[in-house]
Specification:
The protein is built from 22 helices and four strands. The protein is mainly alpha-helical and 508 residues long. The protein has a domain of 65 residues. The termini are far apart.
């Protein structure tokens, strides 16, 4: 209306200005009902425009009065909508904060006000009941959602979570299965179903679910690939223990596929190498281990590589292990492998030189044990025992715990494989169940002779002749007859069970 008035005034101003500039104001006469009015043309133009403006104002005023009821209704609706939004927002916040009574109060208020968003009201009612601990009311609210197609997924998820909280595993799985069948994007339902398959050690069903999720684009290809590699490794570990030749052949195929999918997944590669070696395919086993070392070195890989041939001399073994270390020469595990090679060759100086590459590495029990072996090989038993003492207080390496006391790698239970599959699929990182449970693994510290060879002679208690325990008699004690008997726990060799450099592990 204001714009219209401005336009009329502008036209009037232009008309008056035109008449004034022309130099002739003109004459105009108006005769109406016997009356006659004489005036200038500009005056008539102004009168006409003024009357038009008054008419417009009158018409707009009439329209405003007639629209007053509708305008009032709109104002009331807007106020109601604002109150409903405030109730919904406050209710969801109260439910998230665990204030069940406030959430239910606001849910009731929202139900009275929010006519346009009944779906949100139902969700708030269910969450408010959950926050208040009213399980029957929450179950009823979620069940009511199943009647609306657009809310069925939310209803199934809420009922599944309630069932899980109540320990009703089968009911929860039923709701997850129905949700997974109704929509292609229910990732939560896929995860619940996958976890149930893994808990049951049903690796084949898990693989089928992963394939289904990839087809639906629920998970990225890299996640699906990692999940498949872990599940195939678990399937291979299961088949490795079987006596049926067909099952073992299937285990070999699964392990090889796992190693192909993720060369850096040490459990799958070690499994493949063991099974390939058992089938006489040493070349393929070595290639798989070398590719894995290039991608992600792990101590279980070089031990498996070492044990591919148990009938070689130490120099031959050292040369063969150098091929593995060359696949990733700057990795910490390759530096450790370089020390092991020098110890295999009896090259104490070379081992010490190789050990300098690990000077900046954090001290762990494994590094301390390696330092002790190097020191003992160099004829420094005192220094070796110092390293052993430091190693006893140093933290253990999780990767090293993947080896059991017999040196067998990844001897996992079914539940461990299930957790590993989920974690590796989502993060690409290994878990270490034996380390988490503080189970005894392959010793990181060598067992050295326990007798002490001091650098200086010392006197007996009686102040008699000095007695020096010779290094070659370490680990022995004289009984009353003078015969040399081994002390309890003494080992025949300087490295004992921890002497990985010279030990020949059984073929696996």
């Amino acid at each position: 209306m204001i714009r219209a008035a401005l336009v009329i005034l502008l036209v009037a101003a232009v008309a008056v200005a035109s008449l004034a500039l022309s130099g002739d104001a003109g004459r105009a006469s108006v005769i109406w009902l016997g009356w006659r009015a004489d005036m200038t043309a500009s005056a008539l133009a102004l009168i006409v425009l003024f009357v038009a403006l008054l008419a417009t104002l009158a018409w707009q005023t009439l329209l405003w009065i007639l629209a007053a009821p509708r305008r009032a209704a709109r104002t009331r609706a807007e106020s109601r909508r604002r109150q409903a939004n405030e109730a919904l927002t406050g209710g969801f916040l109260a439910a998230a904060a665990g204030d069940g009574s406030e959430a239910r109060r606001l849910a009731r208020k929202a139900a009275e006000l929010a006519d346009e968003t009944p779906g949100l009201v139902k969700v708030l009612a269910a969450q408010a009941a959950e926050a208040a601990g009213d399980v029957p009311a929450a179950r009823a609210a979620y069940a009511a959602m199943l009647g609306a197609p657009e809310m069925r997924l939310a209803g199934h998820r809420g009922l599944m979570q309630l069932a899980l909280a109540q320990g009703e595993r089968q009911t929860a799985l039923r709701h997850a299965q129905e949700a997974f069948g109704e929509t292609r994007s229910a990732r939560w339902a896929w995860r619940v179903l996958l976890e149930s398959r893994l808990e049951a050690a049903d690796w084949l069903a898990g693989l089928e679910l992963v394939k289904n999720a990839l087809d639906r684009k629920i998970v990225p290809p890299v996640v699906a690939e990692r999940a498949r590699a872990a599940l195939l490794a678990a399937l291979a570990a299961q088949g490795e223990q079987a006596t049926d030749p067909k099952a073992r052949a299937q285990a070999l195929d699964s392990a090889v596929e796992a190693a192909r999918l993720r060369p850096g997944f040490a459990p799958g590669v070690v499994m493949a190498a063991r099974l390939l070696a058992a089938h006489g395919k040493l070349g393929r086993a070595a290639t798989a281990l070398e590719q894995a070392w290039k991608a992600a070195p792990h101590p279980a890989l070089w031990l498996a590589y070492r044990d591919l041939n148990t009938a070689e001399t130490p120099p031959q073994r050292a040369r063969r292990l150098s091929v593995l270390a060359a696949q990733n020469p700057t990795h910490r595990e390759s530096y450790i492998l370089g020390v092991e090679q020098a110890l295999m060759l009896g090259d104490a100086a070379g081992a010490g030189q190789a050990m300098t590459a690990l000077d900046a590495a954090p001290l762990t029990a494994r590094i301390a044990g390696l330092q002790a072996r190097v020191a003992f090989a160099a004829g420094l038993p005192d220094e070796a025992r110092v390293w052993l003492a430091r190693g006893m207080a140093a933290p253990h390496e999780p990767d090293w715990s993947d080896l059991d006391p017999e040196g067998r790698a990844f001897a996992y239970q079914a539940s461990d494989w299930a957790r590993l599959a989920m974690t590796y699929a989502e993060t690409g990182e290994l878990i270490h169940p034996r380390h988490e449970r503080a189970e005894r693994g392959l010793s990181e510290l060598p067992r050295l002779p326990i007798a002490y060879a001091d650098a200086q002679p010392f006197l007996t208690v009686e102040g008699g002749e000095p007695v020096l325990y010779p290094a070659d008699g370490a680990g022995y004690d004289d009984d009353e007859t003078g015969a040399a008997e081994p002390l309890p726990g003494a080992t025949a060799g300087p490295l004992g069970r921890g002497g990985l450099a010279s030990g020949r592990g059984p073929a696996r």
